[in-house]
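If I may wish for something, please sit down with the protein I am sending here and say whether tokens and residues agree:
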Amino acid sequence: MQASSLRGSGWKLVLALGAVYFIWGSTYLGIRIAIETLPPFLMAGVRFLVAGALLLAWAGWKGASLPTAAIWRTSAVSGVLMFLGGNGAVVWAEQFVPSGLVALLVATVPLWIVLQDWAFGKGGPPGIGLSFGIIWGFAGVGILVTGGEIGMAGRDDLFGGLLVLLGAACWSAGSLVARYGPRPASAAVGIGVQKLAGGGALLFLGLVRGEVAALDPSGISAASVLAFAYLVVFGSLIGFSSYIWLLRNTTPAVASTYAYVNPAVALLLGWAVVGEPMSLRIGLAAFVILSAVIVITTQRTRGAPPRKGARWKKNRPSQEAAHFGDRS
């Protein structure tokens, strides 16, 4: 994309980047506040069911065609992996792990994508740059999880941190299913189906765990309700719309910058708003992990030819990319 076209976007570019940076970075804190008095899986399930229904309604209003059976299957499988496996791990872990540290661990998704893409035979072996990024990134994870600061109130919660890493791997797998499977003409349709499938799976898990039966409406705080509404309206809808605009009007390198800005925003908000820990070790881990993400996203957005089996189309956002930042 020419620099003149970026300058022509002007304030729209600033607003879109600001929305994606701040909104998606703040959803981790939003989750922490929401689950203070709302059951985690029930909250997440209802959030994505509502967001998915609204996205499909919007896509229908814009004239998008209904998805085929194959698209329904692919979107449902990827949605369950991403939202039940990925977001489910996040909402559960945030009961015990500070939201900023959760965001840092979720930032490893690009590392998992490179590894899984290679392991499943879709992409070639990572080159020197990607290999360095992967090793460097997981070194940062090691710094973070071995410091005894992964839990809240000064206690260690290594299991919670490892669960978030497993969730990041699930999100990566779901992203690859969406990338290589059939996709609708409208990204909103595919993402809406993903959110419905993942939200339904999260809601079912909440029911199985007895979250509905144990819910006391009188104990739900106004802060949790407002945080839930923020996650639906801003996190899943406005953030999505802003990122779609970036994909269509800027270069991939510009659009992908959220991947290393969001965790920094989450860390700062968690520290400033609710007093989450911030130390030299956490700062070092953040630097190592986020610099690794910069290396990997830069390598992957340099205009390399599509990998085997990929179905990229110019100026058309994939449903994998279009809510890649909606991991929280």
